[in-house]
Design a protein that fits this description.
With 101 residues, the chain is of the alpha+beta class. The chain is 39% helix and 19% strand. The relative contact order is 0.22.
Length: 101
């Protein structure tokens, strides 16, 4: 099973870019295999992320987005959560459970 992180490589938001970087660096530091999926170049991936995510990844500039914002995390096609859920799991040493590993 592969952890998939849905990102936007061309986000105009510093907050989103920082969140994406934080997740990717945390996964690398813990030697967790993952795949990065850029929703800006793959419309099917973007649609999948938007329809399967149950958390919307609200940010300081958009606390109630219409569609889920990246980064969103999946294990294969099973939804794990957004940045906030990832951070909570990481702080509580529950990342393996969160990522469904």
């Amino acid at each position: 099973m592969v952890v998939k992180v849905y990102v936007s490589e061309v986000s105009g938001s510093n907050e989103i870019r920082e969140r994406q970087t934080t997740i990717l660096l945390a996964l690398k530091s813990k030697n967790i295999d993952f795949e990065v999926i850029d929703i800006t170049v793959d419309d099917a991936a973007k649609l999948f992320m938007q329809t399967k995510s149950t958390r919307f990844g609200g940010t300081s500039f958009n606390s109630h987005p219409i569609y889920p914002l990246p980064p969103q995390i999946f294990n294969e096609e099973e939804y794990c959560g957004d940045y906030t859920a990832f951070e909570v799991a990481n702080e509580n040493n529950e990342l393996s459970t969160f990522l469904k590993l």
